[in-house]
Design goal:
This protein is of the alpha+beta class. It is 44% helix and 14% strand. It contains four helices and two strands. It has a two-stranded antiparallel sheet with strand order 1-2. Helix 2 crosses helix 3. The protein is elongated and about 55 Å long.
């Protein structure tokens, strides 16, 4: 297997640069990796979120700290939730 050739082919297909472990993941599980890559492109790296927050979301009033890189942390607090508007369109406040 020519890994550099596979890497450049996959990068052309996905439209962005990849690490070699991404290429290996794709070669082992092409469908799973493609779905994962779409998710990662849409939502960035969610690996920094605590597992319960990722799987279950935050409860109203709950606050978490997320370290996005060494020395940089975000404090995230779920303030409120409201009923949807009857026309189902998002409103900004």
């Amino acid at each position: 297997m020519n890994f550099p050739e596979e890497k450049s082919s996959l990068e052309a297909k996905l439209g962005h640069t990849l690490r070699m472990d991404d290429v290996l993941s794709y070669l082992l599980y092409p469908d799973v990796f493609t779905k994962f890559d779409k998710f990662r492109q849409a939502y960035s790296d969610v690996g920094v979120l605590p597992t319960p927050a990722f799987f279950y979301g935050l409860k109203s009033g709950e606050e978490i700290t997320v370290e996005i890189e060494s020395g940089k942390s975000l404090i995230i607090k779920f303030l409120t939730v409201s009923e949807p508007h009857p026309d189902a369109l998002a409103r900004s406040f």
